[in-house]
């Protein structure tokens, strides 16, 4: 597969029709798949009467490519039931933003997307959140082998808050940092993340039980007491004592792999996004975890992989903003 650059992608996709064809080749490499009944078949392509555009219900001209299922007889397009469903943003713009979020190691700010592609800031933010929703782990199974786990806290220090910051009235000088835990497979590099209220032994145990085959895995962690809760349920548990200046041992490479992920995450939030709400932090973690887990892939391969995770990932604006 040829590795794309933004320049080659923009030369390939000059019209909406070309954007639809390109997305179809990524999502349906063999034959079209009906999103209504899930059947892959040589479904009917409903060509526009004039061969170029079709008229929508509002009277606008659209280059959308429409198919009809041979089995359930329902109509669909490559956008049906995905994060693109119902969007009025041109598909060409969607694909370009999709590529940028897959390719940019530090992510891309919604404000930058708004400036580059001429969309409203709210629209740009909504687009990035929908793409992050697609990047979330799709339940690819539990990990096994060497598992490296650590926790971190994300957010500013109270002493750096402005004197008139409203958080001072709510919390005084106490920190409002957000807690997150992550585990990474030492064998494959795949990472799983979760935002939590408090980091406790029970939370760590639940995270491992959902994501790891505990009896078949070796846990690598620091010496925090909360990991003792799960120690006996693992095949083995190797600890490094950071307080004693110990970062690797004969049995363990320590927690460097997951700390590297947290370091990249924090630098990117600080430098690219500047501030992230706790309500949406989980999706930002999913974005960085997806890129980290696929760091050995090319940008094209990463984008192709993500296109395969679009089905059933609709995200509407009101639930996202708490106005459901």
Report the end-to-end length measured between terminal Cα atoms. 42 Å
Q: Rough shape?
A: globular
Structural class: alpha+beta
Query: Number of domains in the coordinates?
Result: 2
What is CATH's topology name of the largest domain? Nucleotidyltransferase, domain 5
Helix share, percent:
25-40%
* SS elements, strand count: 10
Oligomeric composition of the shown chains: single chain
Topology:
Elements (H helix, E strand, L loop, with lengths): L5 H7 L3 H12 L16 E3 L7 E2 L5 E2 L3 E3 L6 E2 L14 H13 L6 H8 L3 H15 L7 E12 L11 H6 L6 E8 L5 E6 L4 H11 E11 L5 H4 L4 E5 L15 H18 L4 H16 L5 H9 L9 H5 L3
Parallel strand pairs: 6-9, 9-10
Antiparallel strand pairs: 1-4, 2-3, 4-5, 6-7, 7-8
Describe the protein's architecture and organization.
- The protein has 324 residues and is of the alpha+beta class.
- Helices cover 38% and strands 17% of the residues.
- It folds into two domains: 94 residues, no CATH class; 134 residues, Ribonuclease H-like superfamily/Ribonuclease H (Nucleotidyltransferase, domain 5, 2-Layer Sandwich).
- A five-stranded mixed sheet has the order 8-7-6-9-10, with helices on both faces. It has a three-stranded antiparallel sheet with strand order 1-4-5, with no helix packed on it. A two-stranded antiparallel sheet has the order 2-3.
- A hairpin with a 5-residue loop joins strand 7 and strand 8.
- Helix 3 crosses helix 11, helix 4 packs across helix 5 and helix 5 crosses helix 10.
- The longest helix has 18 residues.
- The radius of gyration is 23 Å and the shape is globular.
């Amino acid at each position: 597969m040829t590795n794309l650059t933004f320049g080659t992608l923009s030369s390939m996709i000059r019209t909406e029709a070309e954007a639809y064809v390109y997305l179809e080749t990524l999502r349906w490499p063999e034959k079209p798949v009906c999103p209504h009944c899930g059947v892959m078949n040589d479904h009917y392509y409903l060509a526009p009467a004039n061969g170029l555009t079709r008229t929508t219900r509002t009277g606008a001209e659209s280059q959308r490519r429409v198919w009809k299922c041979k089995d359930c007889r329902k109509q669909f397009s490559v956008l049906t039931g995905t994060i693109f469903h119902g969007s009025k943003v041109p598909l060409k713009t969607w694909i370009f933003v999709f590529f940028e979020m897959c390719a940019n190691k530090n992510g891309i700010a919604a404000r930058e997307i708004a400036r580059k592609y001429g969309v409203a800031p709210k629209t740009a933010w909504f687009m990035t959140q929908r793409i992050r929703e697609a990047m979330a782990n799709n339940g690819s199974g539990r990990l096994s082998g060497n598992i490296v786990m650590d926790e971190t806290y994300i957010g500013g220090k109270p002493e750096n808050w402005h004197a008139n910051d409203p958080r001072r009235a709510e919390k005084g000088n106490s920190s409002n940092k957000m807690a997150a835990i992550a585990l990474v497979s030492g064998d494959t590099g795949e990472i799983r993340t979760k935002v939590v209220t408090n980091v406790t032994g029970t939370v760590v145990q639940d995270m491992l039980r959902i994501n790891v085959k505990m009896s078949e895995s070796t846990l690598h962690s620091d010496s925090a007491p909360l990991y003792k809760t799960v120690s006996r349920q693992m095949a083995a548990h190797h600890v490094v004592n950071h307080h004693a200046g110990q970062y690797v041992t004969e049995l363990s490479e320590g927690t460097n792999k997951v700390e590297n992920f947290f370091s990249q995450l924090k630098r990117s939030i600080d430098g690219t996004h500047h501030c992230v709400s706790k309500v949406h932090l989980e999706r930002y973690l999913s974005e960085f975890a997806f890129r980290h887990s696929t760091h050995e892939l090319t940008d094209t391969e990463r984008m192709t992989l993500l296109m395969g995770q679009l089905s059933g990932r609709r995200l509407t604006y009101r639930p996202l903003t708490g106005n459901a």
